[in-house]
Amino acid sequence: MLIREATVADAEGIAIVHVDSWRTTYNDIMPSDFLDNLSYGQRKELWKKNISSDGNYVYVAENSDGKIVGFISGGKREKNKVENSGDLTAIYILENFQRMGIGKKLIKELFFKFEELGLKTIFVEVLEDNESRYFYEAFGAELLKTEKIKMARTELNLLVYVWMDISTVLL
Asked: What's the rounded Cα separation, in Å, for the pair 166 and 120?
């Protein structure tokens, strides 16, 4: 498995992982018509913009065939006003490639970048019903707060986790 920094040329592969992962991850959380209407083309354009944006860091996981099977992104959200902090904004891995250590490799790659940038505290938001929250907990993230959000015509609980010191993740 190759972990590397994403380029704009990766936007299509990232979009496929993003949409397909949403459809499997949120299958029992969000309305099926919402998930069915997710667009590879729209996500491709979104990821072209994300990859090109200063202060946004995107890494991909490629299998031995050179196919993107996962990705991670992070930076600092506009609403984040905490000094020396950043945000893990997305991590998705195709269902058939989960539980193979790819997530661990991706998170370490991003957190090494955060360390290089001098970011010590990292936030991540995750829906309460999304089992990936246990992945964050396994890496030492602590629940900071819960808030209600509305997404896809559904009221959901959003959990905000924090790593106060990312050095433990980098061991």
From this structure: 6
CA–CA dist 16, 22 (Å, integer): 10
CA distance 90 to 92: 7
Pairing of strands 154-163, 121-127: antiparallel
pLDDT for 63-118, tens place per residue?
Answer: 999 999 999 999 999 899 999 999 999 999 999 999 999 999 999 999 999 999 99
Concatenating the DSSP letter of every residue in 42-93 gives HHHHHHHHHHHSTT-EEEEEE-TTS-EEEEEEEE--TT---TTEEEEEEEEE
Residue 21 corresponds to which tokens in the numbers above?
A: 């992962």
73 forms bridges with which residues in the sheet? 58, 90
**pTM (two decimals):** 0.94
Contact 109, 166 (CB under 8 A): no
